[in-house]
Amino acid sequence: xxxxxxMPTAGPSTLPGDRPRVWRAFLVVxxxxxxxxxxxxxxxxxxxxxxxxAHIVKAASVARGQFIGxxxxxxxxxxxxxxxxxxxxxTCFAFHQxxxxxxxxxPLTDPGALTTSYTTAGLYNPVYYLLVGWPTLLLHDxxxxxxxxxVSGIVTSLFAALAFSILWGMRRRxxxxxxxxxxxxxxxxxxxxxxxxxxxxxxxxxxxxxxIIAAVLDPDRSRLLSRAMIVLAGGAVAVNTRGLSPLxxxxxxxxxxxxxPWRQVVALLRRPPVIAAAAGVVxxxxxxxxxxxxxxxxxxxxxxxxxxxxxxxxVGTNPLSGFFITLVRTTEYSHGLIGIFGWLDTPAPPEVxxxxxxxxxxxxxxxxxxxxxRMLVFAWVLFGAFILLPPxxxxxxxxxxGIIWQGRYNMPLFLCLLVGLxxxxxxxxxxxxxxxxxxxxxxxxxxxxxFGQVYAFExxxxxxxxxxxxxxxxxxxxxxxxxxxxxxxxxxxxxxAVVVVAGWLVLRSIDxxxxxxxxxxxxxxxxxx
Length: 529
Description:
Largest sheet: 2 strands, antiparallel
């Protein structure tokens, strides 16, 4: 076994016949992920994701030119359609597992009429809300909310598909493709199908990270321009989604450079596409920071508590305690990366957590055992950022604002961790030398992931329809207290069908790219088996 892995400095990333398939792979993944996010968007009751009513009101108000609104003790006052304002009342089931998602509210006589409402997201950066809020200008009932969710899912899936297309164009991509499948957790699809900036923030950051790591490990000049454009688009959107987003994007840009010597970094930074992408991301970051500082969106609730109804436990706690409180709850917070749905009150079944925990554990163990030199340093830096950044952020905020951290906030680094480790492991492990073992392992991973996706969806839908102790017969064939548009059975069948198709395509892809890697292997320098 060799202790070093090759770092190619030139040459094509793929065989010539693979180039057209990059765009085909991008489109297929975009469609499939959009369909999965749309399934969650339709099957989730209105207002049944974290702080969604505030985000819905914010999006509708931004679409009408109200970027902030008027401060008040109930949040920022804005003018939105009545059906949008009504979402503040559609949360009677939140934190009550025994209640289905039916609040018994009387129908609105004029759902499209403009009225006054309030949002605790009034100071948030408006870019995400401009992207998803426009359907409320065209639709004048609750279909406008479902449309916003679907648009959010499409944009979330767009950046995930762009990241996938970069992986597809790299050398030794069999393991990275499987790692990407593991990174697409039910929680990511749920957030993507909600009016919530978390999903887009995570996948746009991933697109930046994958674009940088591809430019570093596969310096194919013919692909550098397209990768730079993806980094520019992902970075410009990601830094403008949430207040902490510039931090995640900065890490996504810097960490991949650990993999190569400094002289190679300098050479890469001198290329015009890289310079243009860097300039664009810097300008977008300046705009994002200007908004955050100008509105004081991160600390406004601390300095002006009379402008928000929200309050959090732990105010006055010293930063060191905040650091350790968050650090020791790392595993608990990590559940929010896999599947804590609703208002963080509807966890996925234990089997779902076991599946993802086992696969992530295998990936981490393989990285720490098999990687060497710069690749091992890269793995530790990536893992260290994932573990330590949440406690550091909470430590900086706890004294004035209390304990505000949630597991889903770390989704950008979670995606970068899984995909990044799978990329470097793909450089160390020669799957083409054990095709039978690789094929069986791929089948096992894809089958358990497909089961986890369907089970998490079914369990969440059943909780809102008939509650966790409700009848399965009533859930699928009866008249439940609540059901999504089209009914429970149709929603479950659609998601299952999309998951099966996606799983089949993943298996075909990893098997095919293993054969392509075998054809490329003789042209590469020796790497570890």
